[in-house]
Automatic annotation (TrEMBL):
Residues 147-637 form the Peptidase S8/S53 domain. This is Peptidase S8/S53 domain-containing protein. GO terms for molecular function: serine-type endopeptidase activity. SUPFAM superfamilies: Subtilisin-like. One of its GO terms (biological process) is proteolysis. The keyword Glycoprotein applies. Residues 1-19 form the signal peptide. GO terms for cellular component: extracellular region. It comes from Erythranthe guttata. Residues 717-811 form the Subtilisin-like protease fibronectin type-III domain. Transmembrane segments: none annotated.
Length: 816
């Protein structure tokens, strides 16, 4: 009877475990981690962490084994999944299990802390939610169908084929036959780290191009891998943002940050590796574009490209632009990064109307970190770091690196040694071990010779409890991006905050008459920095680095009658797939995910959304897809106020303008049903080129193979979903043609918000269109005041079926 009762209880327990929700818990244990293990010592050069010694490697294995034995002895088999073992600076582990199971760990021998991972709330990469993608996916038949039938090509640094974002889904097998027998004909090139099985149906094709790289430099075979494999991480990040699988868990250093999904999670991926760690050449990029067009990709993602305009020709006639024009001509939508040279004007590197130049913004998510001082002050900062032991309840000796420098050390007395924590041999281990150490963001960081990787290395070698990288008032505020720290740490980028820390430290630090410290009384702790906050953060905000317009015709920066960038998308602090080799970002080495920023990250958002529009409207041309996103974009943020932009000064905002965000922030839900579109073809682009000032028809013929049989009166006559005039004097008339792509007739009313110094009228003031019917709009602009800078307005077409079509106006008035 007793045995039967125990059996029933066991069955009930198992059923309960199956039904219970699992969460992630952090468990810290007694026992020294590798960095502080008895007998550990630095390497002979003084720079390498001693955890690579034979004894340390053995101790690390012992800790991992002890974690496994502990879990096996306490928890029911099959009730948990150990995510990571912490063994270098903390002894413990992260475990995915139920609340009832984790209760068995509390109070266990050697257990110091059990804490629920508050980051378990599902937030994805967040940009899908911020953009309203679940509603878009619903219209496409759900996330399991969103992007089905579309191939997105990525010319980049390759791909990490074993990443779960690109895994084969046996429950929903890809429809490979649809691609191989219809419009797509790519192939799979194999090589080191990239076997034939890498092309699994999600990755439908992969190639690499290296002839230019081989010619331009002596390649390093350890990192310049001759296969489509991505050793950098950039290409994987871009591909997963556009087309990564749905709901992939993001776990870094044992912490669960949510689930990542691409914009079009069922789209297929075609990889064209053309950039290598040692060198990247335009030759390889163009060869990749050429092959992608031949293979038949639907969407081409170019998060790479020239950093400067072509020499001795107009910007629209450079080789890169012409290749993109050919891709457009072949029916391929091209999304191109606008560049990372902002916030100054004339910095865009996306020039042409046949590619969509993408600017970058942030979202409403932040990762606030904190430094807790002994007097109760809490200083905000940045860093994806776990807390120091005790989660702020325990505080540790606060030491400035300047005061911990060895008095008689044989090294230069320069900032990297004495205050930037770059060299462990410069600091006295008896002072800094077990302490929170203040390092300073000084000259080495500004000139690029110092880095965070070295700070973390020093902290590991010398056994810091945590580090603080604080602004130097002599240099001003610095820009800090959240980076995963494998040990507790925080960046304090504002000088006002750094001065608060400095005042507290000096008040609590006692010195002799020579200025040497005789007692450290200051205390501090690193707070949790990995939990996202959505506390009414203003978004979107145009990122500081995002390149700005106006667009320009030549290297002398003569402005062009064309709006660039075209559109704004999330590109700041984006979680996506990464390559664990991470050869150009050592601080991210070993990670499968990375949180990084750039217009490179914004571009695949647009590429993925374009794939969904193409799936919904297979016959649409690239310009129609671009128009749908442009005319439905928003100029307002989540507070209902005009979009703001980061400026030159750190942490300052000003009202953004079309030369920062193009038509506005992309709205995928409305882009699927734009009502009207502006369609532009290859011949129209030739007419645009032929209407440029001082045009040489022969150069256009040589560059494009086309002729100047037809020209516009002005380049501004190109049928774009915007109007940009860089030298408006007197009066000008231009035209736009719209097409009704809705399935019902609709009546539109025209309204105008004119730019300063200009009156604008639209004829006809209202019109009715049947499905697929077109309407010519005559737009008349008259100068009323000559201004010294561009002014902005818009034309708004409001439909009787609730479609709203916006046409941005950008005008620079001049005297006759």
């Amino acid at each position: 009877m007793v045995r039967l009762l125990l059996l029933l209880l066991s069955i009930i327990s198992v059923i309960s475990c199956v039904a219970e929700k699992r969460d992630i818990y952090l468990v810290l244990l007694e026992g020294e981690p590798v960095a502080f293990h008895h007998g550990a010592a630095p390497g002979k050069d003084g720079k390498k962490p001693f955890l690579h010694s034979e004894a340390s490697v053995a101790h690390a294995k012992h800790l991992v084994d002890s974690h496994d034995r502990f879990l096996q002895s306490k928890l029911d088999a099959g009730s948990y999944n150990k995510l990571y073992s912490f063994k270098n600076i903390v002894n413990g582990f992260a475990v995915h299990t139920t609340r009832s199971q984790v209760e068995k760990l509390k109070g266990g021998h050697g257990v110091k802390l059990v804490e629920k991972d508050t980051g378990a709330k599902l937030m994805t990469t967040h940009s899908p939610e911020f953009l309203g993608m679940p509603a878009v996916w619903t219209q496409q038949g759900g996330d399991r169908n969103a992007g089905e039938g579309i191939v997105i090509g990525f010319v980049d640094s390759g791909i990490n084929p074993v990443h779960p974002s690109f895994a084969y889904d046996p429950m929903h097998p890809p429809l490979i036959s649809n691609y191989t027998t219809s419009h797509f004909s790519g192939s799979c090139e194999v090589g080191p780290l990239f076997p034939q099985t890498s092309c699994n149906g999600k990755i439908i094709s992969a190639r690499f191009f290296a002839a230019g790289a081989r010619a331009a430099a002596t390649l390093d075979p350890s990192v310049d891998i001759m296969s489509p494999y991505d050793v950098v991480g950039h290409g994987s990040h871009v591909a997963s943002t556009a087309a990564g699988n749905f709901g992939v868990p993001v776990v870094v250093d044992g912490f669960f940050y949510g689930r990542a999904s691409g914009m079009a999670p069922r789209a297929r991926i075609a990889v064209y590796k053309a950039i290598y760690p040692t060198v990247g050449t335009l030759t390889d990029v163009l060869a990749a574009i050429d092959q992608a067009v031949l293979d038949g990709v639907d969407i081409l993602t170019l998060s790479i490209g020239p950093d400067s305009p072509p020499q001795d020709t107009v910007t629209f006639l450079g080789a890169f632009e012409i290749f993109m024009l050919s891709a457009h001509k072949a029916g391929i939508f091209v999304a191109q990064a606008a560049g990372n040279q902002g916030p100054g004007p004339y910095t865009v590197v996306s020039y042409s109307p046949w590619s969509v130049g993408v600017a970058a913004s942030g979202t409403d998510r932040t990762y606030p970190g904190s430094l807790l001082l002994g007097d109760g002050q809490k200083i905000g900062g940045v860093g994806l770091s776990g807390p120091s032991f005790g989660n702020g309840l325990l505080q540790y000796k606060l030491v400035s690196a300047r005061d911990a420098v060895k008095v008689n050390g044989a090294f230069p007395r320069t900032p990297p040694y004495v205050e930037e924590c770059q060299y462990p041999e410069a600091l006295d281990p008896t002072v800094v071990q077990g302490s929170v150490v203040i390092c300073t963001f000084s000259s080495g960081f500004y000139n690029g010779t110092s880095n965070l990787t070295a700070v973390i290395q020093t902290a590991r070698v010398l056994g810091f409890t945590g580090f603080v990288l604080a602004a130097n008032p002599d240099y001003g505020d610095f820009i800090a991006e959240p980076i995963p720290f494998s040990i507790p740490g925080i960046m304090i980028p504002r000088t006002t905050d750094a001065q608060i820390i400095s005042r507290y430290y000096e008040q609590q630090t006692y010195r002799n008459d020579k200025g040497l410290v005789i007692r450290y009384s200051g205390r501090a702790a690193i707070g949790e920095g990995r939990v996202a906050s959505y506390m009414d953060e203003r978004a979107p905000v145009v990122s500081r680095f995002s390149s700005r317009g106006p667009d320009y015709i030549d290297e002398r920066r003569n402005p062009a009658d064309l709006l660039k960038p075209d559109i704004l998308a999330p590109g700041h602090q984006i979680w996506a797939a990464w390559s664990p080799m991470s050869v150009q970002n050592p601080i991210l080495c070993g990670y499968n995910f990375a949180l990084i920023s750039g217009t490179s990250m914004a571009t695949p958002h647009i590429a993925g959304i374009a794939a969904l529009i193409k799936q919904n409207n297979p016959t649409w041309t690239p310009s129609m897809i671009a128009s749908a996103m442009s005319t439905t974009a928003t100029k307002h943020d989540n507070r209902g106020e005009p979009i703001m932009a980061e400026g030159y000064a750190a942490y300052t905002l000003h009202t953004a303008a079309p030369f920062g965000y193009g038509a506005g922030f992309v709205d995928p839900v409305r882009a699927l049903d734009p009502g009207l579109v502006f369609s532009t073809g290859y011949e129209d682009y030739l007419s645009f080129l032929c209407s440029l000032p001082n045009t040489d028809p022969e150069k256009i013929r040589v560059a494009t193979g086309g002729t100047c049989a037809a020209t516009f009166s002005n380049p501004s006559d190109l049928n774009q979903p915007s109007v940009t005039i860089t030298a408006l004097s007197g009066m000008r008339v231009t035209q736009r043609v719209v097409e009704n792509v809705a399935n019902k007739p609709e009546t539109y009313l025209c309204a105008v918000l004119p730019p300063n110094g200009v009156t604008v009228s639209v004829d006809p003031p209202w019109f009715t269109l049947a499905p697929q019917e077109k309407q010519t709009l005559v737009i008349r602009l008259v100068v009323t005041q000559v201004l010294e800078d561009f002014s902005f307005g818009e034309i708004v077409l409001t439909g009787s079926l609730n479609h709203i079509v916006r046409i941005p106006l950008s005008v620079l008035t001049i005297s006759l």
